[in-house]
Design a protein that fits this description.
Layout: H1 8-13, H2 23-29, H3 34-41, H4 46-61, H5 74-83, H6 89-98, H7 101-113, H8 123-136, H9 142-155, H10 163-186, H11 191-199, H12 211-216, H13 224-239, H14 250-262, H15 265-269, H16 273-320, H17 322-339, H18 346-356, H19 359-372, H20 381-384, H21 388-401, E1 405-406, H22 411-422, H23 435-441, H24 450-467, E2 470-471, H25 488-502, H26 508-528, E3 536-541, E4 544-549, H27 559-571, E5 575-576, H28 577-588, H29 607-619, H30 637-646, H31 650-665, H32 668-673, E6 678-687, E7 696-697, H33 699-702, E8 706-715, E9 720-727, H34 734-741, E10 751-754, H35 761-769, E11 773-776, E12 787-788, E13 804-805, H36 815-826, H37 835-838, E14 840-841, E15 844-845, H38 847-869, H39 871-894, H40 907-941, H41 948-951, E16 962-963, H42 974-977
Parallel strand pairs: 5-16, 6-10, 10-11, 12-13
Antiparallel strand pairs: 1-2, 3-4, 6-8, 7-8, 8-9, 14-15
Helix pairs in contact: 4-6, 4-7, 8-9, 8-10, 9-10, 9-25, 10-16, 13-16, 13-21, 14-16, 17-18, 17-19, 22-24, 25-36, 26-38, 28-29, 28-40, 29-30, 29-40, 31-40, 35-38
């Protein structure tokens, strides 16, 4: 890995106080105990006591000493001064700066409180061993490793060394770990396995592709036949018989596997022996996991379509027989009217019914209704029965190849699968059979219907796979989500670091008390101002009072804003897309993040031109053809294909995007837009017209076709931070949590906004525990539940809302498990998208889930109260979400080729292409921001009235001045090559 991997923000903040320390945080971490105060009291003079106390608390919190104590946030200085009774703060600081005491104090603090230097004996060894463990448990992102290293040094009272020392140390550890990983992967290989792996790279006679190329192509459609082929593919993977040693870092193994999945076989062949064999081992192991995932994806689709089609068929049949049912029901109504006639005696009822309806007619009506009515939870077996052959096509192979495991809730299904596999003559296990299935499995004569039993097992298997009550190994998407949680001595070692980084406490009581106080104060604030808030009221609806929140009016645009927007727009230079990329590459050097997949430092002449061309080919959805120029070496077809295969991949796109985000963060205009502490997330849909398992139907967005949703995170500086591609449309708001946790830019948004959608108490709880504020837009509060903790608290008119009580006793006994879960999420041990499966058994939430839900209920209530109370909160949420729409509009214009449809069949291809789109969007936004800044400077120099409140409402998503069509030329003027800006347009001569 490169040695200089830190962002400018990480360098700037190293050994510095954060800018936004909360009062409760200061109260916790800047408390002087009795021994501290006793020792400080012995210092002569108020200035000496204050200086000593500040140096001590700074060393404890930041990990270093300050030469200038005025750089410490003043609220911290006040907190310390109050505890040691120093009144004249300013004079004391000035005297301390001039005295020699500060140098003696640092030596004394080191000795008395046990602070050590990084170079002292044993420190590097201890830190290295700790980093080895962290790396080996799955945390390998350099930025995150750096943050955790700094926290380790502070917690272990090691004074921070120079930042380059830490950077080099982490790079050295990661390099050693890569070598150790390669050797661990291949140490148990037999000669037979080595030969099989080497054969993957060979091209057999009369074949045009190697075995590796053939295996890498997964299924693209779902049917019973392709399911059988997918199961055979698993058996081919197992023929390699590669079993990995336990406790390897899955993230690093995944990087090797991804390389094997995308690189040419010739590139793999040229690797050193250790790395080559380790790469093939990783591929073989992950190939089985991928093959199993593909097979279960197909199984899920096949079963889903099977049961859905049975339901639709049943519905059509019901419609055809509705007249018969109506007629029979009418006959029974006539008979029932006689039964309900109180004027008739019991003896007269029977004869009158037969006189009105007739005995035979009544029998026919009863028989008809009995045949046509269905229970509300019917499983539509009569329609499924016709698909018996479809099941027989794949069931034997499925039972033979897939080895399911389960938690306690899934054991009945495992027993049923084992019974089917064994073809036993013993009675079938019936624990999984529900009442609705039982009527079909055992008929009136109690005869066993094996076909119905098989459909019942498959029905239960489908649901259990979604909940992960059933799981398989190895697997990416269907593994046991509980297996990777931190535990044992490993958890004991990292718990302090996790608590410090997330501002949590080892014991729950202090954290919860602050949380409850925040809820109570928010209730009282909103109640106090309720009558003065014109946007909220209570209305009587259906006999009960409901809260009504008036929608915001459209924000007026002053004439000054319209005029400024017009002036800026008229001055932005017209430019072709290739020139924009080359110019921003020159200004930010984001191209440097694109390293060769095999030979990290391999470069070529005019490589930046080739990389920009490939990025645009992906982002514009045109393919390489419009960019090919055989008369320009950097744009020859072979060169572009080589760059595409060796430089454009997920990790290089992510790294280059981080450079662009950092560059935008330095812009004057971007800083006026925001500090990067707010982000919003929304999805953009793409139709996928080709056959793909990683696409799903949704008639609202894709008509009769299938598609994906590109879910992306946008900062208030207008830069995209991270994205993920989801089949179909988003159903799980925890995907958003994954997007936030896995973003690797220098911006650290803490308030995450999203549009109205499905979100649970658990989602709110996890966001809060991980240091974020989940802030969805609230469209309707009519059915919302507001929670309280104190049953006796009086919240005035809000007592009508605060009907439900959060139970802290559900949290306290499980606090350590809560910390363990959020720690595993923070360090990437478990994916956020699979965490819900950790929190439930069957359809019931675990005790841990209930504890997190209680935290979420309190946080959600605080959010709703602030939302209804603060118009600016609602307005900022709406404006931030509107930014996402602006970005998506620009994305549609860029992604114009092939009718804007995504033609990638596989997940990796979709992610890489949409990742390139996101990168190009950030390039365009940064270019616009630079030239908008220059335009504003020009306008101010011309004495044009520019109001700051108008500046912040300017959008960098303008696109009319970009030429996105035609053949593309990659060239720049000399002035731009020299780092100068293009000349702005003359608005009078456009």
């Amino acid at each position: 890995m490169p040695v200089d991997f830190l962002s400018p923000a990480q360098r700037e903040n190293y050994g510095r106080y954060p800018n936004d320390l909360a009062p409760e945080f200061i109260a916790n971490y800047f408390f002087l105990d009795d021994q501290d105060r006793e020792w400080i009291r012995n210092k002569r003079g108020a200035f000496s006591r204050l200086g000593y106390a500040l140096q001590l608390t700074t060393a404890r919190f930041v990990g270093t000493f300050y030469s200038d104590l005025t750089e410490i946030p003043y609220k911290i200085i006040e907190r310390i001064a109050t505890q040691i009774n120093v009144a004249d703060i300013q004079n004391s600081l000035e005297r301390y700066q001039k005295s020699e005491q500060r140098w003696r104090h640092t030596v004394e603090i080191r000795t008395r409180y046990g602070f050590t230097e990084f170079n002292e004996e044993g420190i590097r060894f201890k830190l290295g061993r700790w980093l080895y463990a962290l790396f080996w448990t799955g945390t390998d992102r350099p930025g995150l490793l750096f943050e955790q290293t700094v926290l380790w040094l502070i917690n272990n009272k090691v004074l921070l060394p120079g930042i380059t020392t830490v950077e080099r140390f982490i790079a050295e550890i990661r390099s050693r770990m890569d070598t150790r990983l390669w050797r661990s992967l291949i140490k148990n290989l037999t000669n037979d396995q080595t030969e099989k792996l080497n054969n993957l790279l060979l091209v057999a006679e009369k074949q045009r592709q190697s075995l590796l190329d053939i295996l890498r192509k997964g299924p693209v459609r779902a049917s019973s036949k392709t399911l059988v082929k997918a199961l055979k593919r698993i058996e081919m993977a197992r023929e390699l018989s590669i079993v990995l040693p336990k406790r390897l870092p899955e993230g690093r193994v995944s990087v090797l596997s991804r390389f094997a999945n995308t690189a040419k076989t010739t590139a793999i062949s040229r690797l050193s022996y250790e790395r080559k064999m380790a790469t093939l081992v990783a591929f073989a192991h992950h190939f089985e996991a991928t093959a199993q995932d593909d097979a279960l994806d197909i199984l899920s689709i096949v079963l889903s379509e099977l049961f859905s089609k049975a339901k639709r068929t049943n519905h059509k049949t019901r419609l055809r027989t509705i007249k018969d049912l109506d007629s029979a029901a009418a006959t029974l109504i006539d008979a029932c009217k006689v039964v309900l006639d109180n004027n008739l005696t019991d003896q007269e009822v029977r004869s009158k019914i037969f006189n009105i309806v007739g005995y035979e007619e009544l029998i026919i009506a009863v028989t008809e209704v009995n045949a046509l009515i269905q229970p509300p939870d019917d499983v539509f077996y009569r329609e499924l029965e016709d698909k018996e052959q479809t099941i027989k096509n794949f069931l034997p192979s499925l039972l033979r190849v897939i080895h399911f495991d389960s938690n306690e809730a899934g054991k009945p299904i495992i027993q049923a699968l084992d019974w089917l596999k064994s073809k036993s003559k013993k009675e079938a296990p019936m624990d999984l059979v529900s009442k609705t299935w039982k009527r079909y499995i055992h008929d009136k004569e109690n005869q066993f219907n094996k076909t119905a039993y098989i459909f019942c097992v498959l029905d239960k298997l489908q649901g259990a796979l979604k909940r992960r009550d059933l799981f398989i190994s190895p697997s990416w998407r269907y593994s046991d989500p509980r297996a990777n949680l931190h535990g044992g001595t490993e958890w004991e070692a990292i718990r302090p670091v996790i608590c410090r980084s997330l501002n949590l406490t080892n014991e729950p009581h202090g954290y919860l008390q602050e949380f409850v106080n925040e809820l109570d104060e928010t209730y009282k604030l909103v109640a106090k101002n309720f009558d003065n808030n014109p946007f909220i009221r209570f209305d009587l609806i259906k006999g009960s009072e409901e809260l009504i929140l008036t929608q915001l009016d459209k924000l007026d645009e002053p004439e000054s804003l319209k005029l400024l927007r017009s002036e800026v727009k008229s001055r932005l230079p017209r430019v072709d897309l290739p020139e924009v990329l080359l110019e921003i590459a020159k200004r930010t050097n984001f191209i440097s993040a694109f390293t060769h997949i095999n030979e990290g430092n391999a470069r070529a002449v005019d490589l930046e031109i080739s990389i920009c061309a490939v990025l645009l080919a992906q982002a514009c959805n045109t393919g390489l053809e419009p960019f090919v120029r055989e008369d320009i070496p950097a744009l020859k077809r072979d060169r572009l294909i080589w760059v595409d295969q060796n430089y454009i991949r997920d990790e290089t796109i992510t790294a280059s995007n981080a450079i662009l985000v950092a560059a935008q963060n330095q812009s004057k205009l971007a800083k006026k837009w925001g500090g990067g502490d707010i982000a919003s997330a929304d999805g953009m849909r793409f139709v996928v017209p080709v056959r793909s398992l990683h696409a799903a139907p949704n008639p609202k967005y894709f008509n009769q076709g299938r598609g994906v949703t590109w879910y992306n995170l946008l900062s208030n500086q207008r830069t995209g931070l991270n994205d993920v591609t989801v089949p179909g449309t988003l159903r799980d708001s925890l995907i958003l949590l994954g997007v936030v946790l896995e973003q690797q830019t220098e911006l650290k948004p803490t308030r995450i906004m999203t549009d109205t959608g499905a979100y649970s108490d658990i989602v709110f709880g996890l966001f809060r525990l991980l240091g974020y504020r989940f802030s969805p837009r609230l469209a309707d509060l009519g059915d919302a539940r507001f929670w309280r903790v104190d049953p006796l608290a009086d919240y005035g008119k809000l007592n009508i809302l605060a009907k439900h009580r959060a139970n802290l006793e559900r949290i306290i006994p499980h606090w350590d498990d809560v910390l363990r879960l959020v720690g595993s999420l923070k360090l990437g041990r478990v994916p956020a998208t699979g965490i819900m499966r950790t929190l439930q058994v069957g359809d019931k939430p675990t005790r841990l889930a209930q504890a997190i839900a209680e935290i979420g209920r309190i946080d959600k209530t605080i959010h709703m109260l602030n939302y209804i109370h603060d118009e600016s909160c609602r307005r900022s949420t709406l404006l931030q979400l509107n930014l996402t729409e602006g970005r998506h509009s620009l994305a549609r214009s860029v992604f114009h080729g092939k009718r804007g449809e995504l033609h990638q069949r596989y997940r990796e291809g979709q992610e890489d292409q949409l990742g390139a789109l996101g990168l190009v969007l950030n390039v365009l936004v940064h270019w616009n921001t630079i030239y908008m800044d220059a335009t504003l400077d020009q306008l101010k120099n011309d004495n044009f009235p520019v109001n700051e409140e108008d500046e912040v409402r300017l959008s960098p998503f303008a696109k009319a001045h970009f030429n996105m069509l035609g053949r593309y030329s990659f060239s720049m003027s000399d002035e731009v090559k020299d780092g100068k800006l293009r000349s702005l347009r003359d608005p009078n001569n456009p």
